[in-house]
């Protein structure tokens, strides 16, 4: 009898310990939203404590499952909720660190929830709030799968989400059913827009290609002592109206963030104690939490630079001007010696009505950072010109203070050229890549052009996809794609060689500004510069892009004869056009073999 009481007492203590860990984990998780979104060290310690508690909670429920089932009444959806929170932790840690390995960890936990069907009986609990948690889990899982380019799984998840939304709506007739229908439509529209050009297997099924940087896709470079800078901080801002979006990621943001990341690795970090999940039917191993040491812990902080593959980046969707400037200042502050800051902005133009501008910093207009409701036009959303108030516009002059450090700016807008006059007051390296401000009439008539994302960003993300798109090539067999990609690779290699052979620093045609050379040693910045060259050469040779506003610009200007109009680069584009059977889209030039 004494032994029985002892066992019951032990079980009671186990239940109380579980309740304590569960409440502590919820408290810490809810506190994450109060952490600053910018800066590095202000939030890492808190994340470390949160990971630590969830590690203990996950191990605890695994080790004492039988007791918790019988004495606490632990349900499968509650285990799923813990796993979902861990997945969210990893996803948000990815957003804060830009390390794609954490994205893989989020995927593992989300996949386990689906594989073990933790939420399968949620509808039978007669709790609409539980169904909302299930729907949110699906939406988050879809975002992670999109970022990892698991498109087949994305389509399966969208089908399941649609079924779950229908079941939720039919059962509870909730007030938020229209919001969930909108979420579903956003996802479907995003998936459709993302597939700008289909690459097909021999059986005509589409192939998913990754456009993150890898050793095979990193442009070659002849190193020189002038190549001193590395990309360390990135701001990716998406404010374009009427562009496909999902979960505060516009299509342009989605493409650019992948362009500025390396391909995730599947290797186990030396600090990790586990090789991870063993298929969808296994629960995540407790030792998975966390890999790479506890994020935010002393060990992690000491080694984070060593293991960091990607520059740190912020993602801002339609920020206010004050938010944008705060995040810019934070990135500026965090720059280490030898580091460069990249600002990418995809936004609609704010246009000036000043007839004789004297101040190029503020009188030529700028970019709309966020769309506000304007009482003058009856509450509608205005995307152009004078409907914007001055406070919602980023002007070139707003960036002057940040040019005290090396800065690389990409502007994708119908008012991009106003950023070509930024002065170099402080003598630091500065490059501005600007999109075309207009597209040919043939493209203006295509309703999907604006919705599917910017053409300029597509060139920076996947040059071959962009070339196919402007030549109306909707699908390409994989063997043909690989052959065409070899021409693109050849172009990039030749362009890299031409850049490094140009003479530096003289103010004259035929010389290249030292800013390009200093940035050229960084893999990401070199890739962007060379893809910009590809875009410029292609659009200059394309019959449809005849106006000067239909081609990109850069400041300082790149040399024409020695680079942009070099016959070797033009010849490769003609060869590529011939291989794609779109030679007729391009101007007359030498016949291609």
UniProtKB/TrEMBL annotation:
Pfam family, one: SCAI
InterPro entries linked to this entry: SCAI (IPR022709), SCAI_metazoan/Viridiplantae (IPR016607)
One Gene Ontology MF term: transcription corepressor activity
Region described as Disordered: 264-286
Taxonomy, superkingdom: Eukaryota
Gene Ontology biological process: DNA-templated transcription
Protein name: Protein SCAI
Species annotation: Stomoxys calcitrans
């Amino acid at each position: 009898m004494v032994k029985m009481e002892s066992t019951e007492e032990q079980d009671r203590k186990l239940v109380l310990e579980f309740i304590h860990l569960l409440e502590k984990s919820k408290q810490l998780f809810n506190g994450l939203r109060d952490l600053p979104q910018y800066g590095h060290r202000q939030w890492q310690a808190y994340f470390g404590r949160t990971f630590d508690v969830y590690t203990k909670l996950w191990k605890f429920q695994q080790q004492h499952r039988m007791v918790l089932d019988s004495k606490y009444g632990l349900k499968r959806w509650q285990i799923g909720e813990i796993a979902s929170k861990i997945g969210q932790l990893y996803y948000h840690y990815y957003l804060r660190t830009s390390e794609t390995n954490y994205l893989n960890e989020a995927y593992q936990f989300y996949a386990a929830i689906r594989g073990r069907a933790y939420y399968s009986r949620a509808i039978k609990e007669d709790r609409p709030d539980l169904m909302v948690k299930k729907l949110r889990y699906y939406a988050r899982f879809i975002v992670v799968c999109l970022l990892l380019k698991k498109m087949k799984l994305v389509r399966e998840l969208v089908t399941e989400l649609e079924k779950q939304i229908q079941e939720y709506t039919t059962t509870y007739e909730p007030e938020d059913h229209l919001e969930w229908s909108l979420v579903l439509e956003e996802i479907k529209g995003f998936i459709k827009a993302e597939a700008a050009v289909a690459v097909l297997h021999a059986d005509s099924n589409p192939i998913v290609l990754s456009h993150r940087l890898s050793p095979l896709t990193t442009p070659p470079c002849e190193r020189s002592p002038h190549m001193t800078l590395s990309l360390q901080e990135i701001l990716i801002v998406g404010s374009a109206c009427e562009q496909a979006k999902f979960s505060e990621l516009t299509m342009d943001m989605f493409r650019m963030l992948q362009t500025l990341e390396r391909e995730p690795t599947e290797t186990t970090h030396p600090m990790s104690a586990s090789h991870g999940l063993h298929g969808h039917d296994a629960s995540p191993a407790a030792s998975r939490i966390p890999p790479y040491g506890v994020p935010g812990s002393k060990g992690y902080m000491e080694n984070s630079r060593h293991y960091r593959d990607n520059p740190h980046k912020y993602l801002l969707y339609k920020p206010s001007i004050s938010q944008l400037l705060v995040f810019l200042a934070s990135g500026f502050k965090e720059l280490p010696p030898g580091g460069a800051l990249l600002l990418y902005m995809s936004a609609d133009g704010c246009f000036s009505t000043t007839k004789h501008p004297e101040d190029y910093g503020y009188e030529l207009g700028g970019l709309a950072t966020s769309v506000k409701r304007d009482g003058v036009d009856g509450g509608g959303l205005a995307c152009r010109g004078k409907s914007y108030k001055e406070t919602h516009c980023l002007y070139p002059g707003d960036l002057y203070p940040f040019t005290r450090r090396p800065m690389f700016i990409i502007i994708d807008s119908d008012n991009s050229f106003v950023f070509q006059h930024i002065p170099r007051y402080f003598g630091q390296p500065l490059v501005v890549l600007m999109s075309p401000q207009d597209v040919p009439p043939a493209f203006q008539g295509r309703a999907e052009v604006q919705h599917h994302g910017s053409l300029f960003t597509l060139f920076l993300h996947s040059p071959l996809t962009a070339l196919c798109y402007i030549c109306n090539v909707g699908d390409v067999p994989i063997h043909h794609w690989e052959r065409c990609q070899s021409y693109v690779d050849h172009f990039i290699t030749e362009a890299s060689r031409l850049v490094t052979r140009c003479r530096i620093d003289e103010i004259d045609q035929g010389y290249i500004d030292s800013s390009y050379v200093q940035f050229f040693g960084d893999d990401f910045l070199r890739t962007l510069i060379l893809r910009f060259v590809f875009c410029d050469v292609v659009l200059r040779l394309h019959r449809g892009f005849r106006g000067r506003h239909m081609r990109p610009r850069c400041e300082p200007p790149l040399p024409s004869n020695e680079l942009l109009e070099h016959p070797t680069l033009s010849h490769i584009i003609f060869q590529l056009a011939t291989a794609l059977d779109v030679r007729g889209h391009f101007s007359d030039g030498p016949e291609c073999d």
